[in-house]
Design goal:
Elements (H helix, E strand, L loop, with lengths): L14 H7 L4 H10 L6 H7 L6 E7 L4 H17 L2 E6 L4 H4 L12 E6 L4 E5 L4 H13 L8 H16 L4 H15 L2
Parallel strand pairs: 1-2
Antiparallel strand pairs: 1-3, 3-4
Helix pairs in contact: 2-4, 3-4, 4-8, 6-7
């Protein structure tokens, strides 16, 4: 089944509107945004997409989410450089879309969705870099029962490991750029 999201075009927020309207984590989001720098050689690839007017980007996100705060600033820089029209769909207002892009059966954000000009979904990225997501994937496979007495303790441990994988600095941003590059190169 193919997914078409043309009816969502024009209903989201621009990156600027999202950043200005944040009520949670605004300072941290802006900090990650301002600390971004291009990995060597990558900026040219994204600039090369600027002549393609057939791509659109919809990002499912919410400002309360730590992965959104870390990852979406990178996506904003990449899409701006590529000249790809980008809109943020607030997850809670777009559950119909969110439920078409579940991660292991659950709602995980951000989800970066690439469509053509007619709204046909061509590809996606998210909710986090592959090496960080691997920790959550392993956790969910090893802990399928959310009602288990030690579930909360174990998920806290998994989230701590994920933070470790992200690291203290901006190195993870180069990984996101590489993964976005790989996704967009196929489109």
């Amino acid at each position: 089944m193919s997914v078409n999201l043309k009816d969502k075009f024009g209903t989201g927020k621009t990156p600027e509107q999202f950043m200005e309207g944040m009520t949670k984590n605004k300072e941290a989001f802006h900090d990650w945004y301002n600390r971004f720098s291009w990995p060597e050689g990558e900026q040219t690839f994204f600039q090369s997409l600027a002549n393609r007017n057939d791509l659109r980007c919809l990002i499912l996100a919410s400002d309360w989410c730590g992965d959104v705060v870390r990852n979406v600033p990178v996506v904003f820089h990449a899409m701006n450089e590529a000249g790809i029209t980008t809109e943020v769909l607030i997850m809670e207002d777009n559950l119909d879309v969110m439920d078409q892009f579940l991660t292991m059966g659950g709602r995980a954000i951000p989800v970066v969705i690439f469509t053509d000009a007619d709204g046909n979904v061509l590809g996606k990225w998210g909710p986090r870099p592959v090496h960080v997501q691997a920790i959550m994937t392993a956790f969910k496979q090893e802990n399928p029962d959310r009602n288990a007495p030690d579930y909360e303790e174990k998920i806290k441990e998994a989230r701590a490991k994920m933070l470790q994988e992200y690291g203290e600095d901006t190195g993870y941003q180069a990984v996101i750029i590489k993964e976005l590059h790989e996704t967009l190169a196929k489109l």
